[in-house]
Amino acid sequence: MKTAERMPVVMWQYILLLCFMIIGGCLLFSESKWAIPFLFGLPAIGATIYLLLFNKELLIILCFFLVPLSMGVNIGWGIQVGFPAELIVVVMAGLFFLLYLKKWPVIDVNVLLHPLTILILTDLLWLYIATIFSAIPEVSFKRILLKTAFVLFFYFFIIHWFRFRNKLAYPLIFYGIGLVPVILLTLNKHASYDFTHKVAFNIPQPFYVDHTIYGACLAFILPILVILFFRYRKFGLNKINRLLAGGGMLLFAGATFYSFSRASLLSLVVVAGFFILLKLGLRMRGLLILMAVTLVLAISAVYFLPGVIFQGEAVSNRGSIKQHFQSMTNLQTDASNLERINRWVCAIDMFKDRPITGFGPGTYQFEYGNYQTYERLTYISTFAGDRGNAHSEYLTYLAEAGLPGFIIFLLLVCITISTGIKVTFGNHKEPLRLIGLGVLLGLTTFFFHGLLNAFWEQEKMAALVYPAMACLVAIDVFNRGEKPTAH
Fold first, then answer.
1. What is the rounded distance in angstroms from the CA atom of residue 150 to the CA atom of residue 131?
2. Who's near 316: CB < 8 A, 6+ residues apart?
3. Of 447, 346, 322, which is closest to residue 396 (Cα–Cα)?
4. What are the angstrom distances between the C-alpha of 94 and each of 14, 154, 157, 186?
5. What is the pLDDT of the chain when averaged over all its residues?
6. What is the 3-state secondary structure (H, E, C) of the chain?
7. Could you tell me the maximum CA-CA distance found in the chain, to the nearest angstrom?
8. Is residue 66 a contact partner of residue 85, using CB atoms and an 8 Å limit?
9. I want to staple 204 with a disulfide (CB 3.0 to 4.6 A). Which of 208, 224, 274, 277 is the partner?
10. Is the CB of residue 360 less than 8 Å from the CB of residue 139?
11. Closest CA to 443 of 30, 95, 116
């Protein structure tokens, strides 16, 4: 009887599958623009909805595992998404909002009133305001919708999941596991070129657009692997798990070096110095002074360096490996460095024209060409808006969101680091303290990268930064003796 009752259901499944295959085949045969969205997007959306309703934890783990493995797919209308992870994130964020709308608040009030949460929401609100006054509204609207999805899923949904303390390190761990096959494929491809740094820029494709964001993500995860290896007993890990953590640590360290991303290697040096300062008793007041001095020097450099350097034709991917890394300090003949300064000065000039609301989220790459001057051009400069952003998270905010957006971002950096220091030296159990330290060090690599690159708007980095912030907030709430509750 049970078999007879189940037969119609099974039959309907086969009928639906057959219809799906026929429609998909017709779309492919006709070369329709709907073919890719239909054949790849619809099954992903269906699987996401099913897992969201019946197995949320598997979906979360799967999403973080798939982020490094995702590739850009053009779905039409000038929109490209990272398939499948970014598509899953967008669907989950929308469903998260709709399914729990009647049960609000989904997140505990202790989390909602945390300074870091308030700043993340303030940042989002201001970017919506900047979008209203955007120079290219359609670009800004797409960008802010994607950022909203990142905040809803990677921060609010994940912090809701973090009410179970044993999940705190999961986002970084499963992201790292998903990154392992990317590393192996990248190293294998790089080996065919004898690991020369001259081809490093495109080697991580199609998974990462270039070696800089690839190296940045590697550097972000490396500190937690180091902590897991050296303090494995505090996490209740056995020697086999320690061996796996050690293998991962060596693999990620080697991959970071062979990414030939100068900023990534320098960020690890900065993190090592930051860790030493923490061990020596550095607290928030001293850190704020250090950050203020660094910011003043950085802004001064952007203003005054262009007047004292000379344009040249050398670029960092020429010459030997030694010359490649020495080029970090070459401001006279290295085209990569000169182009960065060109982008920075353009960002500041754009800010001068629109100091309050900026040009709008996502508009820098389409607008900065109008602010380039002949004396700052290099042979890798472009007016087409097709070669990246302002190469600075901070100056991108200044150009796209004006002074208020820039100040909000600076406060976000300060409060994140302050919360990280607080939970690292808090009076809770050591596993939480060590996780907080690993997350803080990972975020420090990102904030340092923010001086030289802008990656936050990409799902590859957003999937690390927002969950890391959520982790710090969750630990801070735990440390107060409060527990984020489910509703």
1. 17
2. 262, 324, 327, 334, 335, 336, 337
3. 346
4. 29, 12, 11, 34
5. 80
6. CHHHHHHHHHHHHHHHHHHHHHHHHHHHHCCCCCHHHHHHHHHHHHHHHHHHHHCHHHHHHHHHHHCCCCEEEEEECCEEEEECHHHHHHHHHHHHHHHCHHHCCCCCHHHHCCHHHHHHHHHHHHHHHHHHCCCCHHHHHHHHHHHHHHHHHHHHHHHHHCCCHHHCCHHHHHHHHHHHHHHHHHHHHHHCCCCCHHHCCCCCCCCCCCHHHHHHHHHHHHHHHHHHHHCHHHHCCCHHHHHHHHHHHHHHHHHHHHCCCHHHHHHHHHHHHHHHHHHCCCCHHHHHHHHHHHHHHHHHHHHHHHHCCCCCCECCCCCCHHHHHHHHHCCCCEHHHHHHHHHHHHHHHHHHHCCCCCCCCCCHHHHHHHHCCHHHCCCCCCCCCCCCCCCCHHHHHHHHHHHHHHHHHHHHHHHHHHHHHHHHCCCCCHHHHHHHHHHHHHHHHHHHHHHHCCCCCCHHHHHHHHHHHHHHHHHHHHHCCCCCCCC
7. 87
8. yes
9. 208
10. yes
11. 116
> Partners of 81 in the beta sheet?
73
- pLDDT tens per residue, range 289-339: 766 666 666 556 555 555 444 344 444 555 555 555 455 544 444 567 788
| Prediction pTM value | 0.84
